[in-house]
UniProtKB/TrEMBL annotation:
Pfam family name, one: Oxidored_molyb
PANTHER family in alphabetical order: OXIDOREDUCTASE MOLYBDOPTERIN-BINDING DOMAIN-CONTAINING PROTEIN, PROTEIN-METHIONINE-SULFOXIDE REDUCTASE
Domain Oxidoreductase molybdopterin-binding: 27-184
SUPFAM superfamilies the UniProt entry points to: Oxidoreductase molybdopterin-binding domain (SSF56524)
Molecular function (Gene Ontology), one example: oxidoreductase activity
Protein name listed in UniProt: Uncharacterized oxidoreductase YuiH
Species the sequence originates in: Candidatus Brevifilum fermentans
Keywords: Oxidoreductase
InterPro entries: OxRdtase_Mopterin-bd_dom, OxRdtase_Mopterin-bd_sf
Length: 203
């Protein structure tokens, strides 16, 4: 199989490949002060958690390769990320969910939010990322911490959603028993955002 044929199979409907990495976001870029920055976890968990930046850096880390698909129709294949796997945090007991947890709201600076079903959030293709392409995230791409979700080639068992479902400048996770719309979901974007079904906008 040729490389171009392989890439064509990995490109969802309506998407176009890019060699760049467009930086799209709502609002301004926040400043980062490691001395005051914190990360909060609450909701359907056994006990709320507050981590400092130093504690975030001590958490178990993984590297993954993802194909990214933006709702604005660009796709970027074979991107390399490093960060913290939510799946590993739960499996290792660092986050203890209550039986009723079914959804997750990502909370970012300036009140931005985006929601995911728990099983998608705990997939191997979702990462709390600190590094891209071997370097710390740049401010426009979510430094110091962002959610990132994409496709792992040949893993069609994992739900692949548009890139907006991973929040830049992430500051907290709210585990929820019931679903709730995030910022873009409440402003016309599709709640699920499945890239292969072209779920860009709500009906």
């Amino acid at each position: 199989m040729t490389s171009s044929a392989s890439e064509a199979q990995r490109l969802p409907p309506g998407q176009k490949l890019t060699d760049g990495f467009p930086a799209l976001h709502y609002g301004r870029i926040p400043t980062f002060n490691p001395a005051t920055w914190d990360f909060r976890i609450w909701g359907a968990v056994e006990a709320p958690i507050v981590w400092t930046w130093d504690q975030i850096l001590e958490l178990p880390r993984v590297k993954i390769r993802l194909d990214l698909h933006c709702v604005t129709t660009w796709s970027k294949l074979d991107t390399e990320w490093e960060g913290i796997s939510p799946k590993a945090l739960v499996e290792q007991g660092l986050i203890r969910l209550t039986p009723g947890a079914r959804f997750v709201m990502q909370h970012a600076d300036f009140g931005y939010t985006t929601n995911l079903p728990l099983d998608v959030f705990l997939g191997e293709n979702f990462l709390l990322a600190t590094h891209f392409a071997g370097e710390p995230l740049t401010p426009e791409h979510g430094y110091p911490l962002r959610g990132v979700i994409g496709a792992i080639p040949d893993r069609r068992d994992l739900k692949d959603v548009y890139l907006w479902k991973g929040a830049k400048w992430l500051r907290g996770l709210e585990f929820m028993k019931e679903d709730r719309l995030g910022f873009w979901e409440a402003n016309g974007y599709h709640n699920q955002g499945d890239v292969w079904k072209e779920q860009r906008h709500s009906g």
